[in-house]
Design goal:
By secondary structure, this protein is mainly α. It is built from 19 helices and no strands. It has one domain.
């Protein structure tokens, strides 16, 4: 009897619905915090075991192509297109909405397998563009790891459909647990597999984490009403609508991923470990973005789509303004705090094992430069969700492409600029106490990233306000 009660209680907990955006954001923020803390443990283990050197440079570079698929086709494409359309269909006919979800799942699976096979074949050529500074041996190892990790976007693609369903029904607890389990999988790979397989063990952990991310969401998705059927209709008009909405967004996210690849390419030509320094600093600055910005954006997205489906533009505007101010209120003091405590944060997370003091100082300085644009990076996810709810993926895509071009130009210019002794170089080195340190040219990358993030946010907000005013 007691066992039965426990099972019922667990089922209720896993399938509970959040009533408000703030409540959903709180659940997501807590799960994001746990996930990010696990991410910090992951970074600590990586830094301690491998240090800022060739192993981690290879590992982070091997992530680029699988990340390209995930961000372009899944996070930036399917998730953005699926939820607004599912919301629209569900408000009219529930049966039609579930058929749409099942058919999309099957179409997506086939599509991702074909894309992954294609990239598997062209991995060597792509990696020569991404990491031209790698030695032939490093290139060969990176090719093997990249091909292995092409399994992860297939699993994430399947998972994304269930993520969209859970978001629509406000089942944020299970969605949050999926993020936690992903990091746990990587940690298991570092802890238990890397002693035997080296950096390959970490990559196996990535696949394990992606599998966990998918499996944890399936039971709750079924509880919402999902029922798998062998439907495969490529010509379904609803599937065509998904790809119509995805198409512009794919270019925007592809531009962002190309941006990261260009940054990786530039960093690969600098001091050994520069790729790792940039990635560690970027991962740490993503902590407040994930906890504050993305949590509120994900929690608000289902409401935004429902307001749009029901033509309640006034409520959409009011809700957007309210959440925007909440995020701003939280991120401004957080940015200052991270900037002030940057050295302590980096030392606590990374200054262990083979991670040197030099690498820690450069990572802390990079983190400090990320802080200048942290407020903008945190507000961008919410602003993008407002565009997606209005079923406008074209405008943010054009802005993203412009931003990426700007960032690439700034990255090249600032890295080159920092190689020459100037007043700017002297001021930057003095600010971050790096006068006697080599390899500081890498600081041009986070500075360029911050400046371009600010420009992107300003443009997004201007065009969003213009679009809302036209509709209102």
């Amino acid at each position: 009897m007691s066992e039965n009660s426990d099972t019922i209680m667990i089922n209720r907990l896993f399938n509970s619905q959040t009533k408000t955006i703030t409540g959903g954001a709180l659940i997501l923020a807590i799960s994001a915090l746990i996930s990010r803390l696990l991410g910090i443990v992951r970074e600590w283990l990586l830094a301690s075991k491998f240090g800022a050197g060739p192993e981690l440079d290879i590992y982070f570079t091997a992530f680029r192509i699988p990340d390209l698929i995930y961000n372009v086709l899944i996070a930036g494409g399917i998730v953005v297109a699926f939820l607004p359309l599912f919301s629209e269909y569900f408000s009219k006919d529930e049966k039609e909405a579930w058929q749409f979800a099942t058919n999309l799942l099957n179409v997506l699976l086939i599509f991702l397998i074909l894309i992954s096979l294609l990239l598997f074949i062209f991995t060597p050529a792509l990696l020569k563009l991404i990491a031209p500074g790698f030695s032939p041996e490093a290139q060969a190892r990176c090719i093997s790891l990249t091909r292995l990790m092409l399994l992860s976007p297939i699993l994430f693609g399947l998972s994304s459909i269930f993520s969209g369903i859970l978001q629509y029904f406000n089942r944020f607890l299970v969605y949050g647990l999926a993020l936690i389990l992903y990091n746990l999988g990587i940690i298991l790979g570092i802890w238990f597999l890397s002693p035997y397989f080296g950096i390959l063990g970490v990559c196996l952990g990535v696949i394990l984490g992606a599998l966990f991310h998918f499996l944890i969401q399936v039971p709750s998705g079924i509880n919402c009403g999902f029922s798998y059927k062998p439907i495969l209709k490529f010509q379904d008009p609803r599937i065509k609508r998904v790809f119509v909405l995805m198409f512009p967004r794919v270019f925007g996210i592809a531009a962002h991923q190309i941006n990261l690849m260009v940054i990786t390419a530039i960093a690969s030509t600098l001091t050994l470990g520069s790729i790792t320094v940039f990635n560690f600093a970027n991962n740490i600055q993503s902590l407040p973005i994930g906890i504050i910005g993305i949590s509120f954006a994900i929690a608000a997205f289902p409401k935004f789509t429902k307001f749009q489906a029901e033509a309640k533009n006034g409520e959409l505007i009011a809700r957007f303004r309210s959440i925007f101010l909440k995020i701003l209120y939280l991120i401004i003091p957080t940015s200052f705090l991270v900037f002030i405590l940057r050295n302590q944060i980096v030392n606590l997370i990374l200054r262990h094992g083979r991670f040197s003091q030099l690498s820690a100082q450069l990572t802390a300085a990079s983190l400090g430069l990320f802080c200048f644009g942290l407020w903008a990076s945190t507000l961008i996810p919410l602003t993008l969700r407002a565009f997606f709810a209005l079923q406008d993926t074209k405008t943010p895509t054009l802005i993203a492409i412009f931003t990426v071009v700007l960032n690439i130009i700034l990255s090249i210019a600032l890295v080159s600029f920092l190689k020459e002794p100037t007043l700017f170089q002297a001021a930057l080195l003095k600010t971050f106490k790096l006068e006697a340190i080599e390899g500081f040219e890498v600081l041009g990358l986070p500075l360029a990233f911050s400046l371009s993030s600010i420009f992107q946010f300003i443009l997004l907000l201007i065009f969003l306000l213009k679009k809302i005013n036209e509709k209102h």
